[in-house]
Design brief:
The chain contains 9 helices and no strands. By secondary structure, it is mainly alpha-helical.
Length: 210
């Protein structure tokens, strides 16, 4: 992305171009989209486009970077508030709220970027949560980086299935399924089966009440 002065007009232009790209991806393949398509949909001139971006790839990368940045911030905030190993319910809700944007950018060949950056962000947060959960413990049956990457990958795989199938279940149901799939193995690895079972049961009761 080109470095230009950030002001209200520039932010508005970037939003118009980003929204135009997302709407076009939802209509046809990313490879068939041209800069001309984008500027016509956004109702801006080609010179305006090139004042902000080098090409369509630059625009796509910018939109995806913003999405992943927002997701990373969301993960960190939810971790601080709920102290969960994986803030899966909040993430499913966040992605449902912005599902058109996620689907468009993933379909626009962003799935590799989502997996790489999303898994790194989630894995780092999960590892920090695991260390807080068992503070002072040094002898881990399974190395924390392996356990953290496993949990992040499991969540992203389930998330992709959910989006690919047009979100057939609610965020609350997906969270319950995710927790039931991963908690037994994680709790056994940490040696805290009873503690995590109580936490999970409490969370399911809250989800049903909400």
């Amino acid at each position: 992305m080109k470095v230009i002065k950030e002001d209200r007009r520039s932010r508005r232009t970037r939003k118009l171009l980003g929204d135009a790209l997302v709407s076009l991806i939802l209509e046809k393949s990313y490879d068939s989209i041209t800069v001309r398509d984008i500027v016509e949909r956004a109702n801006v001139g080609r010179s305006t486009f090139y004042a902000h971006y080098y090409d369509k790839e630059d625009l796509f990368r910018s939109e995806f970077d913003e999405l992943l940045s927002a997701l990373g911030i969301h993960v960190e905030l939810m971790d601080e508030e709920r102290h969960q190993l994986v803030p899966s319910l909040e993430l499913f809700r966040h992605i449902q709220e912005h599902h058109q944007l996620y689907k468009a950018l993933i379909w626009g060949k962003g799935i590799d970027l989502l997996y790489k950056t999303g898994q790194d962000t989630l894995s780092n947060n999960i590892e920090m949560n695991l260390r807080r959960f068992r503070s002072g413990k040094e002898d881990w049956e399974i190395p924390l980086p392996i356990l953290s990457n496993y949990l992040a990958g499991a969540f992203l795989t389930l998330l992709k299935w959910w989006l690919d199938n047009d979100m057939p279940y609610s965020p609350e149901r997906m969270d319950e399924l995710f927790q039931r799939l991963v908690l037994p193995g994680v709790s056994a690895s940490l040696g805290v089966e009873d503690q995590m079972k109580q936490s999970a049961n409490s969370m399911f009761v809250k989800n049903e009440a909400g």
